[in-house]
Amino acid sequence: MALLSSLLKGNTKPELSTEDRLRADYPSRYGQRTMAGERVTLENSMSIATFYRGKNIITDDVAKMPFQQFMQNGDQISKIAPDGNLFNMAYLLQVSPNQWGWTPFQFKKAIIDWEITHGNAYIWKPPIFPVQLLILPANRTVPVFDLDGNLWYKHTFTNGKEAYIPGVEILHLLINPDETGFMGRGVITFARETFGKQLGARKVQSKFYSQGLTAAAYVQTSGSLDKDGRARVREAYGEAMSGSENAYALAVLDNKITKFETISIMPKDAQFLESIDATDRDICNFLGLSEHMLNRGKEAYNSNEQKYIEYLQGTLDAYLVPFEEGARIKWLTRTDQANQYFKFNRASLLRMDAKTRAETNAIKIQSGQMQPNEARALDEQSPYDGGDQFWMASNIQPIKKGGTPDANNP
Fold first, then answer.
1. How many domains does the chain have?
2. 401 lies in which domain range?
3. Cβ contacts of residue 315 below 8 Å, gap of 6+?
4. Which of 263, 297, 330 is the last residue of a domain?
5. Same domain, 186 and 205
6. For residue range 42-100, what is the model confidence (pLDDT) as tens digits?
7. What is the pTM of this model?
8. What is the Cα 131 distance to its own chain's centre?
9. Torsion-angle region of 295 (φ positive above 0: left; ψ -120 to 50: alpha; else: beta)
């Protein structure tokens, strides 16, 4: 917090507009009660295996993709290399984003995690050298406007102090925008009732096991029992029959018990087990993941590449494209925006087996789409002399400018 405070010393509180007050719909630390009677918080949402695993699949896959900066001069496109002296954006995105030594994986994962759980992620690039990229916790940051309509971001520190950061320094990423377009809403906001049903169903399931898989029973005695007497009978029965280790054990009752009858329900007959399965499918839909990616259902793809292409287009691009566009606007000058841009290397996710990859590279090389050295670079192999030419499948001869054949190779 000391670092953040030092970066904000020059900022003063703007004169804010009171007409529009943006509010975030974040999961409360105390939880919000659902129709299932369960309070849903961020913490107990993570106890739902389907949500926990699905969230990590998305955040890990985005974090694994290299986020690179490119420059285009005419029809020539080149990748900008990281510079540890200038701390350029390529360095921050590919080596380390800040002085704490964060890795790019850690940085990108945290951003997408905030988006999924809270709907908003705030990346701060303060005007200092060396340049740094810092993540402001979404649950303590909110956009506000001054009387002139300028955008600011109010950040509340853990000690309760507030600071205002100009909008030009913040890259605000969001999903599921509200009617204003300035605030996002996380998955938990929409899936709260589904999570409540899942938490309630699992609680009932746990109760089954704690009661020896028997829902309830009643006993009838030959005489009247006061409150303490009923408690002793209940306790004696519980010690003998409760718990999974006592499931289907023999009950021995004395002659004071005139009637004993179970009120039973087999777990396979209980509808809540079907409810657990149904809500798992709902959670997959909320996250935009196929069921087989969460070890559910049957995979319906002939190849990993086909599976990941659909996954990229249907799920991940909604996180990647706004990140790419926002970075270009916020992290480049107006001049540089004309010929520079940022892009995730999506090909890193489209993992092919060695045979398929070799065949694909061969087709691209023989059709003039790729140089041999470019194909070698994809496998992190060193280039060789003569590998920077383009070839075409006409007896495999090099392509010459203007279509003029090589005198030595007509």
1. 3
2. 352-410
3. 58, 287, 288, 289
4. 263
5. yes
6. 889 999 999 999 999 999 999 999 999 999 998 889 999 999 999 999 999 999 999 99
7. 0.76
8. 26
9. left
